[in-house]
Predict the structure.
Amino acid sequence: MKIGISACLMGYKYRYDGTHRKNEELLDILKGHELIPVCPELCSGFSVPHDPIELKGDRAYLKDGSDVTDKLMKGCDLSLEKIKNCDLVILKTKSPSCGYKKIYDGSFSGKLIDGNGMFARSCLENNIRVFSENDLNSIREYTAQ
């Protein structure tokens, strides 16, 4: 299978704070598959590190109130182009771009809400199967087909 995956889950230090979230268990499950690392925020031109971004509705904002929706959407579009022929994509939860099922509420207070990041939404709208790194059992089953 060809699988798109948030680059930070593979160990790339692309997160807003310059860290990664390498997930060894996930990578073990995915052995033998073609992995396509993707980072919409990096594709958007945000530096690493950069100020945190959160979503309020369909808009993306920096903590200082700057609207970065158009910039982030550009990176989401470029990332979608990279993974459009993948069988599935595995995205990092809570991210304003990759977040799947849970994102921060836009108040920069650490409060989580149900929702999807901008890239996750694009994937779903384009009928790409989406999982988060928390869906290990489902990923194991899906990739064993």
